[in-house]
Sequence to fold (113 residues):
Amino acid sequence: MCRYFLIAIFSGILSCFSQVLLKKSAGCKKQPLWKEYVNPYVITGYGIMAACMVLTVIAYKGVPFKYGAVLESLAYLYIMVLSRVFLNEEITRKKAAGNFIIVAGVVLFSLGA
Fold:
């Protein structure tokens, strides 16, 4: 059962990488218009997203549904960190506070409170 939780967490982190790739592609204006949708960032991002869907289905074989939603909510934390590292986005107090609330909710849910 533990490996299914690890697969779910890995899938969440991997999906955040795909979102970073898609956002990076959105910042680049390309001519002609079709190149905005057919470029390495977009193709790789959607390929990773498809792999994440498969991994999530596999993870749900051993992860109860109530924990699946909780694990997926941690993606907000992952994307904040990855956006800072790869896109140099600022982590504001509001973002940090929001992510703290999400993590606190996950901890409370895990404790059964």
About this structure: The mean pLDDT is 89. The two ends are 23 Å apart (CA to CA).
